[in-house]
Amino acid sequence: MKRNAVTCSRTGLLLLAVLTLTAAAPARAGTWVHGIEGTRGFQLWVPTGYQADTPLPLVVALHGCFQNPSQFAGLSRLNEKADAEKFLVLYPNQATFANPTQCWNFMLVLNQTRDHGEPALVVGMVEQVKRHYAVDARRIYVGGVSSGAVLTGTLLACYSDVFAAGMIGAGAMYKAATTISGTGFAMLFGSIYHPDDRGRDAWECSGRPRHTAPVLVVHGTKDSVVNIVNGRQATRQFLQTSDYGDDSVANDSIRPVATQVTRASVPGGRAYTVDDYVYGGSLVARHIEIQGMDHAWPGGDSRYPFADPSGPDGTSIMWDFFRQHTRN
């Protein structure tokens, strides 16, 4: 790998000694690569067996508050899954100067639109990785937890031409709040906005595309930070977005009614319910509620904060959903 200096004109600061991404030769098995896009850093996991002539899926993984990429990778064991299933993982990093708790600022209007703010920075990272690594552009996904999950919703809404599917873990719907005070209320009680209205907003943010926005929503029933109603609102919001997206009309061609409900449990662990929404032969949405789980990543590594080892494997659930979707 080569090293050079990268100038970030966005802030007028000179950022030196940045590791340059390159696909001129196969990367070493299972390696971290670091980079910068604008005013944010990121980490890229290049899986074992990567070959520069073989395009791989790319998963964008967005950490939550009080986390960084390495901690989210450890919590979720996503790198191990990437090694086994062969996909790249991009971990954007929220800067402490932007938010001292490292939360993504999803509630700011600047960060709820296309081509602006934090969503644009994340997409810029995706484009940077695509320039230097073999990425299957039809299979780019985004998933996150907590504040990263809410940013996931914005990216899926406003860049449905980039992402084939997304996962919202312990998060909320697109534009659940547009102010800091409104965010506090939404986290405690749910958004004051109707999911159907936000579903149209999300469809419009990507430029009214003629395709669905497949979403996986995972939430604990005892989440003490983000009320469970937020997960239900996020599911309905994206079903409404997909209702517009399949034929550009809100005509209930995709309805907020589960086509299949499955109940399961982890041996010695938590029970959970899976609501699937299958329309036109495609799994448009999946909503999972995990009984008794607090604000956590299910099946996470207990050495890291926000882990619930007694839940189902959230990383496997996410990847199993993602690999069913390819963007046309």
TrEMBL record:
Gene Ontology molecular-function annotations: hydrolase activity
This protein's record includes keyword Signal: yes
InterPro entries reported for this sequence: AB_hydrolase_fold, Esterase_phb, Plant_Biomass_Hydrol_Est
Residue ranges crossing the lipid bilayer per the database entry: none
Pfam families: Esterase_PHB (PF10503)
Coiled-coil segments: none
SUPFAM superfamilies, per database record: alpha/beta-Hydrolases
Record keywords: Hydrolase, Signal
Cellular component terms per the entry's GO annotation: extracellular region
Domain of life per record: Bacteria
Signal peptide as annotated in the record: 1-29
Record protein name field: Esterase, PHB depolymerase family
Native source organism of the sequence: Myxococcus virescens
